[in-house]
Amino acid sequence: MSAMNDDMNEDLQQQNRRSDDIRTDDSSLSSFFSLALKYSRRTGYLQTLSLVLNAALMLYAHLGVSGVIYSNQPRVDINTNTTNNATGICTLKDTEVWNALGGAANRSTTNSFCSQQTGCLVDVQCNTECFVENFGYSTACADCFAVLPQCGLQNGCAFVCAQDSQSNECQTCNLPCQEVFYNCTGFFSSARYVYHHRRREQEEQSDTCIIIDAEEQEGTPIEYYPVYEIKFLNALQDAWNGDAKLLAFLVVIFSGIWPYLKNILLMFAWMTPSIETRSTLLKWLKRLGKYTLVDVYVVLILLVGVWLQALIGETTIMIRGEARPAIVAFLLATFWEFWHIEWMAALHQESLKEHNKEADHEAQETTDVEKPLMAVLQFQNAYNSSSPGHSCRSLTFATFFVGLSWATSIALYVVGSISEILRFQTTKGEQRDVVCERSYNIFTLGTELLSDEAMRDSSAEPAMWTLCMAYLLLVVVSPLVVHLIQVLALLGAVSNSMILQLGDSIWTFASVDVLLMGVYIVQYKFDALINRLAGDAGSDILGVNGDMGPGFFLLLAYSISSGFVQYFVNSAVATRYHHDPYYQIDYLWTKVLGGLVLDDDKSGD
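Below the sequence we write its predicted structure tokens.
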């Protein structure tokens, strides 16, 4: 064991001497050459065409429809009909009044009050004013009530109803008038699609969010009406006007400006002759490129968040969302950019290797690993100079420290993933009574797109499947694959630089932190945003609130810890296996780790 340690110390000291030589004469690294001159014109044309086409696809995504919000009501707005009857003229506020007064059960009582007790009899104008002033109906809706006495008189029901307006004889006689009344108001008494719900049975159900029995609905279609189209510019305007300015600002920066800026920076990286500038650009594009996905996660959360089923008196209100081609195009354009960044990074790495061949053998051995490994060797050299044993202790401590951070990251991810990350509450009435509460973790938030309720009568199954699968790939599969590669590297089971580069590339796609950003900015003013999306309307009757759960904060801690591990694991691997997969490690991180190791060594002395 002592001989093995001596060999390791001697090998590390030789590497440090070579790194010192390179740091004193870094002419090879300071040389200038551009990728445009290094590779053929055909390659340059192809990469330029790729960036132009990517920008065009992104532009289509920004101008197209990303999603559609549907309702079984033609339009959820205070000035429009709220039922499935196209001739209904009563508003959602009228529906609330109707339900508060007892609906169909007390209709004849309210009619008797205006026609008999106030003396309006069959005077339509008088009855209209009575329903407006005494009950709060809109004038248009009150007209539907006002014609009932006149209709009953014409049908010969006056004598029967004058004795007892609640009698079966009166109700039977007035059936034709009632049909006219319900067609006029649009209230749900005998609609084209009838569902039987009992309030008491609904309250006894454990899941009050589902009020439509799937078996009862089987074979009976529900007619949905588009009430809002999610377009990039329109949604931003509505979010800004709906007091969701944080959502609008962050989406503009990361999903509006950043995608096009990335293409410009990639073009600059292709043309610039500075190796250092190109390395820095590609490094930060790899790290920050995934934040373009904010828009994808925002749309996904909106589609999940707007879903609701509510029973307001006799009126069933159902709202659901569907993905559209524009959001899929945006997702594909983002993946395209990811691939382009990785492709250019590979060309850059290859060009450096070829460039280093022009240097002498001693310089080539060290410059092949680039600055990150030299930074590691630099702080290792400080320990070697004081005591040969320090290098082994430093390496052991670094590996243990990163391994502990990896285990912490895995624990945070597992616990955070199965914990509640986001909760939606559907409320109704002025008191904002909660009628439905839906809780999601990191898995169910994505798979909700494929739930029975979301897919029933859906016209966008391919888009919903694409969005769900991409979500699971980005926030579940990619992080787990990277962490598997990390632990294999720390245990010494993986020493192939290609596998380590693969892990680094997959980390570009892993975007739990971006999902958390989307969750935060959507729930921050979700109620105001939903009210704005629905028009000025129904906010006093129905509302949807969003809140973050404990899983959000656990995954936030995971994002920090896992980022720490990814930055450090390559340093530990590079020190052990004498190669660096890419320029992932910064001087800042190695100095921090070096300080921790140095403190540990000193305390041991």
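Residues 2-73+228-604 form one domain.
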